[in-house]
């Protein structure tokens, strides 16, 4: 018998359409995840269902409509992820490897795709959340959801997970390839901007300490190897080395936040600061 391997690529999620109803359904599932909004159950439900979803859905629906227009009537995240799945599958034409794709929130759902994989009776399943840097709100949630579903199977095959790939050479090569499309010397400064996280979520990586007390900006060690902030800085250092950038030419920053208690420095504030210094061109 030849072993069969199933690979599941897990993306964050997307509404089924840019309608306000579908956007509200997506935001409701996403933000009610306790790993995303890590508040007590009642506080999270009141905040998400009573305030965020009703008020944000109509505004977000307008933005999603613009994305759908750019995606020729489809979700760009869905079509790009499906293309990545197809390209990866094409690399194994003669092997017993099948690559699947699912969304952590909405469709194609993890429940439906993993059920198809259960029926395929794979010898081994590899779970790959498509997030280079581990965070409980992204990678952690995706793996926990998959394990919750698989835990209900009678037959559980060998399971492998990829928790992060922030320093994977092929990932770094892809980012450098994108950067090569720009003349870096033409820019006054370069920002490596990553999605933000509340400080309390990175603090939870350390059982008896805080992220602020760790050397996350300068090194990876046993304590901070799963700290989102530390791995983002590590990726920046690796990319800067490959691109031949002096430390004075770039800054690591974080975008998207709800208040001031998120990982800093904030990308938008740095843009303002560089503008005040007289910078004319920034590459983000």
Describe the structure.
The protein has 284 residues and is of the alpha/beta class. The chain folds into two domains: 5-161, Rossmann fold; 169-283, Rossmann fold, CATH 3.40.50.1400. Helix content is 44%, strand content 16%. The protein contains nine helices and seven strands. The radius of gyration is 20 Å and the shape is globular. It starts with a strand and ends with a strand.
Low-confidence stretches: none
Question: What top-tier CATH class of the largest domain fits best?
Answer: Alpha Beta
Looking across the biggest beta sheet, what order are the strands in?
A: 2-1-3-4
**Span of the ends, CA to CA:** 51 Å
- What number of domains? 2
Helix content: 40-55%
Give the SSE map.
Elements: E1 5-14, H1 20-31, H2 41-70, H3 76-90, E2 97-106, H4 110-120, E3 124-129, H5 136-150, E4 158-161, H6 169-179, E5 189-195, H7 199-203, H8 228-243, E6 250-255, H9 267-276, E7 282-283
Parallel strand pairs: 1-2, 1-3, 3-4, 5-6, 5-7
Brief sketch in words of this structure:
Helices cover 44% and strands 16% of the residues.
Features:
Rossmann fold; 7 strands; 4-stranded parallel β-sheet; alpha/beta; 284 residues; globular; 2 domains; 3-stranded parallel β-sheet
